[in-house]
Design a protein that fits this description.
By secondary structure, the chain is of the alpha/beta class. The chain has three helices and five strands. Strands 3-2-1-4-5 form a five-stranded mixed sheet, sandwiched between helices. The chain is globular, with a radius of gyration of 15 Å.
Length: 130
């Protein structure tokens, strides 16, 4: 199983940035061997290359900061679980993910919500707001 983690540098003690697009590095971790086996440097301003690398390495999860719409939809559409590890070191975020202590990233920045819409404002979906 592979896990991807965004990072401010190429170190296991580096911090996961607050935003996916601001991540200068992407690490791919082989969870079975518990080791980093690949590190990529930033190649485009929105980090779509990183999003595609997550899919290319068949990662089950991505630990990162909040995602913008395009990378979020690509990753979510492929079934990649997204965890918010921003502000933690790569090592700590990876450990927290394994212990189910990282929050799930349910939507992209400014998105409509985890279930496709929000009940704020005018909503005519017929569902009651909880």
């Amino acid at each position: 199983m592979n896990i991807a983690v965004t990072c401010e540098n190429e170190e296991i003690r580096g911090i996961v940035p607050k935003l996916f697009k601001d991540s200068p590095f992407l690490m791919i971790i082989d969870a079975d061997k518990n080791q980093i086996f690949k590190i990529y440097g930033k190649q485009d301003k929105d980090n779509m290359v990183f999003a595609r690398k997550v899919l290319e390495h068949d990662c089950e999860a991505l630990i990162c900061g909040q995602l913008e719409k395009e990378p979020f939809e690509l990753l979510a559409g492929a079934g990649v679980t997204r965890y918010d590890g921003s502000g933690h070191t790569v090592q700590k975020a990876y450990d927290y993910m394994n212990r189910y202590k990282l929050p799930w990233i349910a939507d992209y920045i400014g998105g409509p919500g985890a279930f496709g819409h929000s009940h704020s404002g005018e909503c005519e979906c017929g569902e009651e707001e909880e």
